[in-house]
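User: Can you predict the 3D structure for this chain?
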Amino acid sequence: MNFQDVYERMACGLRVILWRCLPQISLKWRNGLLWNQAIVRWGVALSCVFLSAAFLNLIQLLLHQTGWWTNPTVLNQTLMHELETLRPQALKVQAEGAVRAQLMLQKKSALQDLNAQSDAVVAHWPNSALRMPLLSQLQTLAMQRGLQVIELKVAPAPNSHGFESSRLLFQMKGSERSTYAYWLSLNQVLSNGIWLNASWLRQADGQYLMGAQLHLWWDADDASTDTGVEVRWQDPLLHKSILSDSFLKPNDLAVHVFPDHSHDQMHLVGSGFSDSTWALVKSGQQVLPVQTGQYLGRERGKVQFANEQGLWGEVDDGPLQKLLAWEQAKP
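Assistant: Here is the predicted structure, written as C-alpha cells:
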C-alpha cells in the first residue's frame, strides 16, 4: 500500500460521509459544481485565514519559548506583575521616608532650641562663643601640624586691668619644624596673648617637647575679640605657605628681628634649646622668636644664648653683653 492508495481510501470515505450527511453537497462535488457555490468559497477562505492565524501563533509561541522574540502582551503582563510585587516595597519606603522626615523635624527643633540656649549664654557671657571651642581649635591645629598633644588645658585666672583672664597651658610633641610652626600659628592667632614661658626640649627619640603658658585677656563686653583684637583662625598674619612649609627653618623667617625697636622696649619672655638657642622676645604687645646668630633691635645685637639672667649677645662685634632681661624673674 502506497500513499496513492491511502489518499484514495480517505477520499472515498469522505465522499461516503458527505453522501450520507449532505447528499446535495456530495452530488455537487462529484459533478464539479461545488466550487461554484459562494458559501463554499467563503468557507474555504475563512478556513485559510484561521489556519494562517493558528500557524502564526504557533510560530510566535516557538520563538517566545526559544527566547528569540518576546510577545508584547506577555511582556506587559510580566511588567504588571513586577509592579504589583514592588508596590508593597514602595509603600514601605514611603512610610520610612515619612518617619525620617518627622525625625528631621524633631532634630531641627532641637537644634533651634540649642541655638537659642547658645544665644542666651552669649548674651550673658559674650566671649563664650570663642572660649568654648578654643581647646578644640587648638587640638585640631595640633593634629594638622602632626603633633602629639601631651597636655592642653585652660585654667581661670584673676581679672587683670579690667579684663577677664585665663591661662592656657599646653605641651606638644613632634618635630622641631612642626612645633615651631604651631607656636607661630598661636602667636599670630592670639596676638594679644602674653607668653609666660615657652621651651623646647629634645627627647631621646629625636622629637621635641614644646611646653608653654599663655596668659589671655578677654573683654567681657566683646564677643568677637580677645582683649579687643579680633581672633582670626582662618586668616593668620603669616602666609599659610610659610606656616605649612615642611622645610621651614627658624632663621629663614627673619635675620633681623624687631629692626625698628630698641632693646630698652624689649623683654625676654621665653627660651628653649634645639640645635641652637631659642628665645622669645616681647616688644610692646608683640612676641617674636629669635635664634642664635640673628640680629635683634635697632642696635643690631647678635644673639648668642639665653639663660636665667637674660638674653646675651654682641653689638657691633664687641664683647659679650646682656642684651635683654627677663620680663619676670626666672625662679
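The chain has nine helices and 14 strands. Confidence is low (pLDDT under 50) at residues 223-254.
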